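hey m, so remember when u said the tokens were messed up on ur end? i reran from scratch. heres the input so u can diff it against urs
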Amino acid sequence: MAQGRRNDIIVVYDNFEFQENVKHQIIGEQPELRSVTTGKVISGADIPEGGLKQSMLNQSIGLEAKDIIDNNLGLYEDEIQMQLSTFFITEAINNVYPDAVGSIFSGYPTLRPRIPQLDVLPVRTTEHWTLGPIMYDEGSTGGHYGVTDSIFRDQLKPDPVVYSDGLVLAYGDQATAQLLRTIKAEQQEASQDYDRREWILPVAAIFHLRMNFLYMVQRSHMNAAAVDPPSSLFHNMNFWGRKQIPSTKAPFHHLEELVLHSFDARVLGLLYTRLNYGGAAIEDPTNVQMRLSTMSHSEFLNLVEGIRLAAFSRQSRRPVKDSSIDIEFLNHIRFLQLVEIYKTLKHGVKYADIGLIKRVIGICCFLFEGSRQCRYALEMLHLYRLIASSATTPELKLAILSNSLVNLRGKEDSWQEVDLFLEHLNLDLKRQLWARKNSTFDVDLLFETTALNGPYCAKIRTVIESQFGEYTNARHQLKSAADDIHMLAYELSYHSIRKSSSSRSSKFTAPDYLSDGIERFINEKRLQRFNERVIRTGPIAAAAPPATSGDDEDDGGVGGDADAGDEVDEYEGVDLPDDHPLHEVMVGVLS
């Protein structure tokens, strides 16, 4: 493969599983789950001339306390966080009442809340190539050796100098990144540069992070055992009659719609309670539309700020201990603040704002710890070390974040995660199997005949369609959910999302994953154990056991059962302001 000689390529690969059934079982022909691997080679962006070098990663530097505290701006309720909350509140109202919001700011476009731009990548069109058949199971350690050999030794065949000095970014899900670190650890004593695989840098890709974040939201707020509490996702799902959403690991597109629509409904519910206090009739959306249209921009912004203070401030998530706690209202608040982080990540991906993405990754180090998704908590520490610590050079940090996204249409809002791009290839291949599978057309034949020529045939189709005046719109058209959101918002505003001045119980209490994660992070010495694993001044430490799932609830945590070693105060010398989210926990734990 000619692209293998370039010094600016990155790779992404993932498992491809398909259940091959047979109609007539005979010796040697029984149903079998086939596990092979698909991959893409992508022309890298923001890679320095001469390519990435192994010297850009200092293996003797770990993740320091100041990296995960001082640089983790997602933990602060700073000006950027307030702008994010204001934008998402305005966006939720605009999704249902676009004409009213448009009229409010018609003469004042600069006053309309906009999402802050931190570090936006310039628009580009990604060049990519599909790898040939990789007939190994990348989900096992042994299979992973075969995958890397097939990609680099058999197909790409890069200049041998890459193995001794260069660095290639390899993106995949959590299991892929962990298994790649495992085989690197096993081969650390190898005599050949290729076998040591120091030239491969595993990087956890962002789509699987998004997917597991949604699973975390579902776990914390589904509460499938009780239909009654309107603050639960289970109530919202049944209120709308949504189907095919199991209580765990639901299909991504169904779950994402449910979560995002529920977010908008809660924001609208808070809006309706305030309009209703002012005497407005909120049952009919036409009345709400008329009331909003009569507002000045300052009146509307004051209304939005009131919602932000009531539902998106840190104090609203953790009320004063001596105060009367409204559990039902608190459930709504914790849902809104959790989903706000997801929406920040989703927006950062769509518009390639790697500053927003970095902000979310930092806070995910604690959220996954609090939700006991310990393998992803560990993976976020690995990723945050690469993009936020002094272990990597600025050039490597930028390359890792920039190449985690691809843009196939060259538009400012057409970015997507590199691993989602590969999932689309897997879907195309499975569609071929579903349509053509028979006793002779199987996974082997599919990969031999289709793996390489699929994208080429798609380009030919586009050219032929253009010559005959035909156009296939492959972009998914979304249906408006405004009516659904209004109905649930009205239901919530009647009682559930009205804050009670006295104590109120609920059939379930949503967990505070951020506070729980921070406390576990400190009590369990997660940072110290993580650094014991990754810092290398001599032979590499043994890697953690490979994961079979990116969403595991075991309590092994970062570093497993490794000895904590000498008692060391990881946070000594770190200056925490009184308003820092870690301050309250750390004062109680470390004092």
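this time it looks ok to me. The CA atoms of residues 265 and 566 lie 51 Å apart. if urs says something different then somethings off w ur setup not the seq
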